[in-house]
Amino acid sequence: MDRKCRWHHGHSQDPRNDTLNAYLRAHIEGAAQHALNTIMAEVLEVTTAGNPSKGAEGTSEETSKNATLLDSISDSVVAKHYNERQEVGLQERTKSRIFFLRNFNNWIKSICIADVLQRLRTRDPRAELTVLDLCCGKGGDLLKWKKGQISRLVCSDIAEMSLQQCEERYKELGNRSHNPHEKVTFRAEFYKADLSKEVLSEMYEDPSIQFHLTSCQFSFHYSFESQAQAETMLRNACERLRPGGYFIGTVPNGCELVRRLRASEGTWFGNDFYSVNFHSKDKFPLFGCQYDFHLDGVVDCPEFLLYFPLLEEMAKRHQMELVYCKTFHEFFQEHSGDPENSQLLSRMKSLEQYPPDRGNTPSSSTDGDYSHAEEHFQRLKEQSDRHIKLGTLSKSEWEATSLYVVFAFRKETSQESATAMTSTT
Ligand SMILES: C[S@@+](CC[C@H](N)C(=O)[O-])C[C@H]1O[C@@H](n2cnc3c(N)ncnc32)[C@H](O)[C@@H]1O
After folding, report:
1. CB of 162 shorter than 6 A to ligand 1
2. Do residues 147 and 181 make contact, with C-beta atoms less than 8 angstroms apart?
3. Residues 256-306: tens digit of each pLDDT
4. Is the peptide bond before 355 cis (omega within 30 degrees of 0)?
5. Whose CA is nearest to atom 10 of ligand 1?
6. Which of 97, 154, 164, 417 is such that its CA lies 20 to 30 A from the CA of 377?
7. pLDDT per residue over 157-172, tens digit each?
8. Model confidence, pTM
């Protein structure tokens, strides 16, 4: 395996790092407070739960105590969980209850990736694009990188077995096609690392490597176990981005999670397809706010609440400017009208056919889960006597997927940074 497994020791042994850490801490705490005061208080209607003298999330002292208590419960759990997840073949995946939901999420990733590659190419049509796939898992996005004709890919993940599968898939991709036009155009490197604790830039074979794009799909929230972990993950995502480069990803929407929790009777909410269990109904520390997420047997390990406005503040420290952060619903509305994207929706089987063909069982058996599709179907039938087939997701699956947001940050160019500096001084 073409990969280094160097653990990152001694980060705090360097006195310059202590100063840097102190600076970062002060900055992030300030940013966190700002995010809390200005945004979260409104969005989450955070209460001070019985202690009016404290900020909504408690003091920073309390936050760090929380982080210490929770310190590192998840890293080994997460790696173990993902390593143990069996890679099932296409046939098994087709039978899965969340077949359409998974494909829908995959479509969102495809569009987000295609969109950002397009932005990069518009700026520099001849650029040989270099991409960092952070928390790449088993390589679910390899085909997207191939299709996007990138030149170089770096993959990293904490789960060794997953990373091995990713590398195997990459090699298969190269061998699969005899058509020279379909050959894999990019070379790839693989690094096993706990990206919330190790610094990737110290591992690269090419120490001067820079990326046009970092993609971190369905993973960044794991690092919100503690402030230090979130900072390291963010550093890994942004440190080697070129000016004008992008950091994209998908994460659960912290505000939506808390909204649903508040609307539920206990600390649990969900349906037949997904469930979320919080440990408290009214305490949401900025870091280390653990909840358990279960998606029809796909993910079942501790996750951590990510307040997007806080990530946005933290990202500014890396000269990263938010381009967009959209719910999957908004993103779908915005992109599904484009004929190419709509064709991709159907090629990727991202929506379930309604009404189903005879002999096909719908994904959801919950009463009323297709009433929206039925209403639409009836309306169309009144207008035309053609044979009508719709694409949809059951309400329960929609509820699960609408928990997520898709985001893109862009690294400022030195000119933009200089302008920002002058306008604030
Ligand atoms: C839901 S999977 C997503 C995989 C892939 N990005 C995709 O979209 O198919 C989450 C991945 O994050 C990885 N992960 C979680 N915490 C990590 C950490 N601290 N360092 C590196 N990888 C991590 C897991 O091992 C897993 O492969």
Report:
1. yes
2. no
3. 999 999 999 999 999 999 999 999 998 999 999 999 999 886 667 789 999
4. yes
5. 219
6. 97
7. 999 999 999 999 999 9
8. 0.81
